[in-house]
Design brief:
By secondary structure, the chain is mainly beta. It contains 2 helices and 10 strands. It has a domain of about 110 residues: Domain of unknown function (DUF427) (Metal Binding Protein, Guanine Nucleotide Exchange Factor, Chain A). A hairpin with a 3-residue loop joins strand 6 and strand 7. The longest helix has 10 residues. InterPro entries: DUF427, DUF427_sf. This is DUF427 domain-containing protein.
Length: about 170
C-alpha cells in the first residue's frame, strides 16, 4: 500500500454541482453528492453514491484491479436496451485507509459512459425547490384530501347550459 504524497498527490473534493451519467440514451446516475477524485496528472474522476445510480442496469463481473494508493477495484458491466459496455463501471468496496470517502461509490469509464455536470439553474430556471413542495401539499392525494387546502381553480366554467361543450 502506498500513500499519496508530493510525488503522487490524490485529492477528493465534494462536487459543487449536480452530476449525471448517460448511457444508451438513458440517465443512469444523477446526484448532487458526487466526489471528484484528482490523482496525480490523470483526468479527474467523478464518484457517484451507489444509491444515486441505477444498479438494475449493471451486473458484477469477475474483473478486479489493484491500485497501490486506493486498493482493489471491482467492476460492473452495463446492459441497457441490449447495448452492453463490459467493465465500464468500477468501485472500491474496501479502499485503503485515507480513501474511505470513495468506499462503495461508483465511477464510469468516460470513453463508454458520458459523465457530465448539470446546471440545475439552467434546467429548472423557473422552478424553485419550495415550489415543488407547495404543489405537493396542495395536490389531491387521490382520496379527495390534500395536505393543505385546495388552490382555487385558475379557470372558470363557461356560462352555457352545456358547460364548455357545444
Amino acid at each position: 500500500m502506498l500513500k499519496p504524497g508530493p510525488d503522487h498527490p490524490i485529492t477528493l473534493t465534494p462536487a459543487s454541482q449536480r452530476w449525471r451519467a448517460y448511457y444508451a440514451g438513458h440517465v443512469i446516475a444523477d446526484t448532487d453528492d458526487a466526489l471528484i477524485l484528482q490523482e496525480a496528472n490523470l483526468p479527474p474522476v467523478v464518484y457517484f453514491p451507489r444509491e444515486d445510480v441505477g444498479m438494475e442496469y449493471m451486473a458484477r463481473t469477475d474483473r478486479s484491479t489493484h491500485c497501490p494508493y486506493k486498493g482493489d477495484a471491482a467492476y460492473y458491466t452495463l446492459n441497457m436496451d441490449g447495448q452492453i459496455a463490459e467493465n465500464a463501471v468500477w468501485t472500491y468496496e474496501h479502499p485503503h485507509p485515507g480513501m474511505d470517502a470513495i468506499e462503495g461509490r461508483l465511477a464510469f469509464y468516460t470513453d463508454r459512459v458520458e459523465v457530465y455536470p448539470v446546471d440545475d439553474e439552467t434546467l429548472n430556471h423557473k422552478r424553485h425547490p419550495d415550489d415543488v413542495d407547495q404543489v405537493v401539499q396542495h395536490t389531491d392525494a387521490g382520496d379527495g384530501h390534500s395536505q393543505r387546502e385546495h388552490w382555487a381553480p385558475t379557470t372558470e366554467t363557461p356560462d352555457h347550459p352545456d358547460g364548455g361543450l357545444r
